[in-house]
Every structure is written in C-alpha cells, then in structure tokens.
Amino acid sequence: MNKTVTLTYEGKQIELPVVTGSEGEEAIDISRLRAETGLITLDPGYVNTGSCLSAITFMNGEKGILRYRGIPVEQLAEHSSFKETAYLLINGHLPNRDELTQFSVMLNDHSLVHTDMKAFYQNYPRASHPMGILSSMVNALRSFYPALDTEEQIDIAMTRLLAKVRTMAAMSYKISRGHELVLPRPDLTFCENFLNMMFDTPVTPYEIKREVVNALRVFWILHADHEQNCSTSSVRMVGSARVNLYAAISSGIAALWGPLHGGANQAVIEMLTEIQTGGGGYKKAIERAKDKKDPFRLMGFGHRVYKTYDPRAKIMKKTCDELLESLRLEDPLLDVAKKLEETALSDQYFIDHNLYPNVDFYSGIVLRAIGIPTNMFTVMFALGRLPGWIAQWKESKDDPNWKIARPRQIYNGETEYAYVPIHAR
Ligand code: CMC
Q1: pLDDT at 81 (0 to 100)
Q2: What does the DSSP 8-state code read for residue 278?
Q3: Which residues are within 8 A (CB) of 288 and not within 5 positions of it... i.e. 6 or more apart?
Q4: Of 200, 310, 331, 360, which one is the catalytic site residue?
Q5: What's the CA-to-centroid distance between 160 and ligand 1, angstroms?
Q6: 424 lies in a domain?
Q7: Do 108 and 156 belong to one domain?
Q8: How many domains does the chain have?
Q9: Measured between alpha carbons, how far is 23 from 340 in angstroms, rounded to an integer?
Q10: Is residue 360 among the annotated active site residues?
Q11: What angle do CA 99, 100, 101 make, to 5 degrees?
Q12: One domain, residues 143 and 34
C-alpha cells in the first residue's frame, strides 16, 4: 500500500505521498505543497531535506554504514583499487577485465596536462593555498578542452578530469618548490603515478613503497563519495544551471576547502600541533570544545549524519597504525590524537552529543607519513572525492526531470517603505 502523510492547514487536509528508498528510508514528497497550500518548508542547513533520489551511495548514520553502489566501503578498502572504485561509482557496476583495461588506457591517454597551464601555476603568488589554485585551474580546463557537447565528449571529459587533476595537483606542488616537473608514467598504477610525480627528483629517485601506495589507495577509496554533503550538493546545484562539468566540479572543490568540510584534515593537524607544542594539552582542548562561549571545536570530531563512529575513521585509524609501524615512524601527533580521542569518548558532553572521530581525525597523520605537505591535505581529499562528484553530476544530468536548483526563503526584512533622498536622511 502506498503510504501518505496527511497535513492539516487552515481546516483543509491534503495527502502527501511518502517515497520509500531501497533501504527503507522514507521521505515526504512535498513537491505539491506550495501549489496546494501556499506553504513552503523551512530547513536551514537542509538538515531534514532530501534534494534528490540517488542510486550511488548509501549511508546510515545511526548504524555507521557506508556503501558505494551497494558494496560496503570496508570491502572496497580491503580489496579494490582506487581506479576500480572510481569506475564503480561513475558507471554503476564493477568493471570486467576489458572494461577496466579500457578505463586504464583512457586514464593514461589523458594524464598529460597542456603545457600552457604551467604558466598559470608559475604566476600564482607564492602564498596561494593549493585548494584555491586547484579550484580555479579545474574551471580553466574548459578553455583548454572545450569539446563537451556529445555523450562521447562528456565521457572523455569525465576520464580526463580524473587523470589530469591528479597530474595538476602534483605539478602544482613541484612548481611551488621550484622543482622540475615529473611526467605521468603508463607503467605505474594510479596511486603509484601520483606519488612518483610528487616525490621523484633527478637527485633522489622516488622509491615506491607498497605500504605507502596501499595507504594512499585506502585514503582515496574512503573519500570517493559520501552522498549529498556540502561539496557534492554544490556540484549538483551549480551543475543544475547547465554549466559545463569542469565548472561544476570547481564549485565542489571550493566548498570542500572549508574547515567544517574537507579542510578539517588540515585543521586537525594544526590543532594537534597546537596541543602538542602550545601548552595546555588535550584536556584544555576538550574543555574549550565544550565551552559554548568559545568558538573552538574539536576538529575531526562530529558529523551531520554519523551519530556513531564514522566507519571511514575506523579504517583510517587502522591504516594509520599499520603505515607508521611498517615505516618505523613515530609521529608524536598520533599519541596526542589517541589521548584526545580516548578522553573525548569518555566525556559526558561528547557522549550526550554523539560526537565521534570522523574520517579526518586520523587521515592527516597518514598523509604526513606519506610525505604530503599540510597545506595539500584537502587537495588529497579532493582527488579522492572526484569520482563521487563526477558520478553525482552524471546522475543528475541523466535524470529526465533535471531541474535547476532553486530553493525558496522566508523573507524577514523591512516591509515596503518609500525611498528617501539623501538630503532628507
Ligand atoms: N566539537 C565540539 N562540539 C561539537 C562538535 C565538535 N567538533 N561538533 C558538533 N558539536 C556540538 C555543537 O556545538 C552542537 O552543540 P549544541 O547542540 O549543544 O549547541 C551539537 O554538537 C550539534 O552540532 P552542529 O554544529 O549543529 O552539527 P552539524 O551537523 O551542523 O555539524 C560538523 C557537523 C561536522 C560541521 C560539526 O560536527 C563540526 O564542526 N565538526 C568539526 C569539523 C570537522 O571535523 N569536519 C569534518 C566533517 S567529516 C569530513 C567531511 O565529510 O566533510
């Protein structure tokens, strides 16, 4: 039986249909609400608002479940490659051998970056943040690769993005250090290639270590999609105006930069460093996070959807321990992080507010161990999230009911009054 909700307003009753998802999630379909009652809904931060139907990612924040196209993220992190996971997200199914080979060939074919782009990178002010550079350079891709009209051209553009943004991120790092660029190599895997482009130099050839490649693979898979978060919703919203793919993805990168979103991985390391070196220790950080008069928050803690331990954080913590052990590295920030987590999880405030570590709490320590500079952490998140953004953009574009996103508002400003000339004010 089709479920409905009955709304009574000013003596009139209307029936609103209930939409049920494949995992039993339910939503009230309010698309007729305004036409029938004159009412709109008000939901700042979209806390209770579903913006689309989507078959890409399922998450359950109460049970700590995350699945891409139905496959638990734990299984993908254990067995899949980042390339295969990207294919899964974008195309909706795991590739067979031929499809994966074809995808690899396309990624290799499109991995070079137009040499004219180098001049842009060289002319950014030295202090520019890599996320600002990435967002504008991805937008600039439209000028270099304008063919976006046919389905085939769009398919190429999606692969091109995955291949080129990885090269662009490494290129940006090399140029910021004044080093020679290292070109992508077709004999290396997707993750190996990135590490080699970042760290190989004519003086010290980069030694590709299995554990490091594995940590990067896991990091990218864990970040590959997370349904309708701030950056993904930006990609969908900006995309709905029918801008080109590059512009839509560029808006996602800009949104991800924020410290409440992807920028949290950089903020966590800065917070842990401050705790370690700045005095006061982790207990003071906990007290500050609880103090409502203090804007400080425990970075890497809390999540809009997860009200239990973030399943990605569990895997990230394990990856972090394994990586540091296999590289025989000791990072003092890991001790600070573990003490901070232990203290927070037994504190009544954090228990009452369901605040647990999120994916960003341990990811910064993994990235440090890999050798990634702190100001590039969020770029690493963006590289991982690219397949998700692309898949979400493609899903919205292919929806026969693709509508321009246009929320409404409740106006609470001045009511009408007459213009007063300046001499009379
Ligand atoms: N430290 C201290 N208190 C917190 C924290 C925190 N990290 N996060 C939430 N709270 C409190 C908040 O003060 C509020 O308390 P009260 O109800 O007493 O006023 C309550 O918990 C609910 O917080 P909220 O801000 O209404 O929750 P939200 O769903 O709007 O925000 C969040 C989610 C992730 C922005 C927030 O938890 C936060 O700011 N965390 C720190 C930043 C962070 O780690 N971001 C990365 C998120 S995971 C990566 C990604 O996918 O983006």
Answers
A1: 98
A2: S
A3: 294, 296
A4: 360
A5: 35
A6: no
A7: yes
A8: 2
A9: 35
A10: yes
A11: 90
A12: no
Average pLDDT over residues 393-418: 97
Is-catalytic flag, 223? no
Same domain, 15 and 93: no
Domain range enclosing 19: 4-50
Report residue 222 as tokens: 């864990």
Q: Is the pLDDT of residue 89 over 80?
A: yes
Same domain, 46 and 61: no
Amino acid at 330: E
Domain identity same for 287 and 153: yes
pLDDT tens per residue, range 230-248: 999 999 999 999 999 999 9
In 10 A of CB 330, how many CB atoms? Answer: 9
Give the span between the Cα atoms of 278 and 293, in whole angstroms.
Answer: 21
- The pLDDT assigned to 244 comes to 96
Q: What is the pLDDT of residue 278?
A: 79
Considering the domain architecture, whether residues 24 and 86 belong to the same structural domain is answered as no
How would you list the strands of the sheet with 57-60, edge to edge? 57-60, 65-68, 71-72
CATH number at residue 103: 1.10.580.10
pLDDT band of 127, cuts 50, 70, 90: confident
The answer on 75 and 40 residing in a single domain is no
For residue 174, how many other CB atoms are within 10 A of its CB? Answer: 19
Contact assessment for residue 68 and residue 88, using Cβ atoms and an 8 Å cutoff:
yes
Question: Is residue 367 included in any domain, yes or no?
Answer: yes
Catalytic-labelled residue, pool 223, 303, 310, 331: 303
Q: Count the Cβ atoms, other than its own, within 10 Å of residue 228.
A: 19
> For the domain that residue 11 is a member of, what is the CATH number?
2.20.28.60
Residue 415 lies in a domain: no
Is residue 82 one of the residues assigned to a domain?
yes
Token readout for 314 is: 């569990």
Residues with CB under 6 A from ligand 1: 45, 226, 229, 260-262, 264, 289, 297-304, 353, 355, 358-360
Of 228, 297, 310, 380, the residue with max ligand 1 atoms within 8 A of its CB, to mutate for a pocket test, comes to 297
Annotate 41-69 with DSSP letters as a single string. ---GGGTT------SSEEEETTTTEEEET
The three-class DSSP label of residue 411 is: coil
Asked whether residue 64 falls in the same domain as residue 32, the answer is no
Mean pLDDT on 26-40 = 96
pLDDT, tens digit, for every residue of 258-310? 999 999 999 999 999 999 887 778 889 999 999 999 999 999 999 999 999 99
